[in-house]
Amino acid sequence: MQALGPVGRAEGRTGRGSIVRADGQAVRDGVASEGRIPLSRLGLLASAACGVGAAVSALALAGVAVPGRIATAAAIVCVPVSLAAALGQLLAIRRGPPLWSFPLKHAIAFRPEEASRVRAAAQVRGGLGGAGHVRPLRLMFPALAWIGAGALVAFTAGGRREAAALALAWLAASLAATLLLPARPFWYRERSDGAVLVFPPDLSDRMNGQGTRR
Q1: Residue 31: helix, strand or coil by DSSP?
Q2: Dihedral, CA of residue 26, residue 31, residue 36 and residue 40, to nearest 10
Q3: Which of 6, 23, 87, 149 stands 20 to 30 A from 73 (CA)?
Q4: Cβ neighbours of 47 (radius 10 Å)
Q5: Are β-strands 122-125 and 108-110 bridged in parallel, bridged antiparallel, or unpaired?
Q6: Distance between CA 63 and CA 82 in Å, rounded?
Q7: Phi–psi pair at 19, nearest 5 degrees
Q8: Cα separation, 40 vs 187, whole angstroms
Q9: Backbone angles phi, psi at 198, to 5 degrees
Q10: Per-residue pLDDT at 19
């Protein structure tokens, strides 16, 4: 896929307008106009909650005496948000990443004859632009990681040491797969001449020969 090159400042000054979903819902600056919390914010919450919970579980597995009330509190907080985050990742396989107004001055312009490959790879397409993942099915790896995190904390709270150790191994493997095999999100905006502006700018490498793969 050949790109025209970085968008200059003059070309990039088109404002911070909304991108429109295929279902007509507008999203501005990463916040859904209908008031739903973007998955990225949920991910931050889940990361904080489950990070603390996983640390508590790791200490318990290492033989440190962790008070039961602390392990229980960690499970109460971590398990629901980890399951919600896992569901969000699975839904994103079809729905695509949260939409936002990306910095146009860092975008890459793709020629009209190449733009169709960008649109075909997107899970979200609208009149002004859209978004997607180069490898959407790889979102199963972070979903499995969230499930593993919740299971680890839950088993620790329940005193099931062997099950918690298996959940820790599950979590480690899922995290490794998430890092080594990322889904690669991207966003694009339509241009009046039929080209598209794409972010991040290294998308041409990520989608080389893979634009329509799902």
Answers
A1: strand
A2: 130
A3: 87
A4: 15
A5: unpaired
A6: 25
A7: -105, 145
A8: 15
A9: -120, 140
A10: 39
Q: Which residue has the tokens 């290294």?
A: 202
Tokens 């569901």 correspond to what residue?
Answer: 87
Distance CA 70, CA 73 (A): 5
The tokens describing 152, both together, are: 């680890």
pTM for this entry: 0.70
What is the identity of the amino acid at 80?
P
**For each successive 10 residues of the chain (214 residues), what is the average pLDDT?**
39 35 38 38 80 88 86 90 92 86 80 87 87 92 94 91 92 95 90 87 58 30
Q: Kindly state the tokens that stand for 147.
A: 């499930």
The neighbour count for residue 213, using CB atoms within 10 Å, is: 12
Q: Which two tokens stand for residue 37?
A: 């919390």
Burial (CB count <10 Å: 0-12, 13-18, 19+), residue 10: exposed
